[in-house]
Write a structure and sequence with these properties.
By secondary structure, the protein is mainly beta. The chain has one domain. It contains 1 helix and 5 strands. The longest helix is centred in the last third of the chain and has 8 residues.
Length: 67
Protein backbone atom coordinates (compact mmCIF):
# COMPACT_ATOMS: atom_id res chain seq x y z
CA UNK A 1 0.00 0.00 0.00
CA UNK A 2 1.42 3.40 -1.01
CA UNK A 3 1.29 6.40 1.29
CA UNK A 4 2.07 9.97 0.22
CA UNK A 5 4.43 11.45 2.82
CA UNK A 6 4.75 14.80 1.03
CA UNK A 7 7.94 16.78 0.56
CA UNK A 8 10.66 15.52 2.92
CA UNK A 9 14.34 16.22 3.45
CA UNK A 10 15.51 12.64 3.05
CA UNK A 11 18.32 10.90 1.23
CA UNK A 12 17.81 7.37 2.56
CA UNK A 13 18.66 4.66 1.84
CA UNK A 14 21.93 5.84 0.31
CA UNK A 15 24.48 3.08 -0.13
CA UNK A 16 27.05 5.40 -1.69
CA UNK A 17 27.30 8.89 -3.21
CA UNK A 18 29.81 10.00 -5.85
CA UNK A 19 31.48 13.33 -5.02
CA UNK A 20 33.23 15.31 -7.75
CA UNK A 21 35.50 18.36 -7.67
CA UNK A 22 37.88 20.05 -10.08
CA UNK A 23 41.64 19.54 -9.69
CA UNK A 24 42.89 22.37 -11.85
CA UNK A 25 41.50 21.57 -15.33
CA UNK A 26 40.70 17.92 -14.56
CA UNK A 27 37.79 16.48 -12.57
CA UNK A 28 38.42 14.10 -9.68
CA UNK A 29 35.89 11.74 -8.09
CA UNK A 30 35.52 9.75 -4.90
CA UNK A 31 32.85 7.55 -3.32
CA UNK A 32 31.36 8.70 -0.01
CA UNK A 33 29.16 6.61 2.26
CA UNK A 34 28.21 9.35 4.74
CA UNK A 35 26.08 12.11 3.22
CA UNK A 36 23.12 13.85 4.83
CA UNK A 37 20.76 16.67 3.99
CA UNK A 38 20.85 19.47 6.55
CA UNK A 39 18.44 21.83 4.78
CA UNK A 40 16.98 22.63 1.37
CA UNK A 41 20.24 24.30 0.32
CA UNK A 42 22.82 22.40 2.42
CA UNK A 43 24.31 18.92 2.53
CA UNK A 44 26.75 17.33 4.95
CA UNK A 45 29.59 15.25 3.48
CA UNK A 46 31.81 13.31 5.85
CA UNK A 47 35.31 12.60 4.50
CA UNK A 48 38.46 11.42 6.26
CA UNK A 49 41.29 13.97 6.24
CA UNK A 50 43.46 11.71 4.08
CA UNK A 51 41.18 11.95 1.00
CA UNK A 52 42.84 13.77 -1.91
CA UNK A 53 39.56 15.43 -2.91
CA UNK A 54 39.43 17.45 0.34
CA UNK A 55 42.12 19.80 -1.00
CA UNK A 56 40.20 20.31 -4.26
CA UNK A 57 36.91 21.04 -2.48
CA UNK A 58 38.51 23.56 -0.12
CA UNK A 59 40.45 25.26 -2.94
CA UNK A 60 37.42 25.65 -5.24
CA UNK A 61 34.75 25.82 -2.49
CA UNK A 62 32.47 23.66 -4.66
CA UNK A 63 31.63 20.00 -5.17
CA UNK A 64 29.20 17.93 -7.21
CA UNK A 65 27.01 15.17 -5.75
CA UNK A 66 25.77 12.26 -7.83
CA UNK A 67 23.40 9.89 -6.13
Amino acid sequence: MKKNIGSQLALYPTPVTVIGAMNGDKPTWTLVAHVGIIGHDRVLVSLAASHFINHCIKKNTTLQLFN
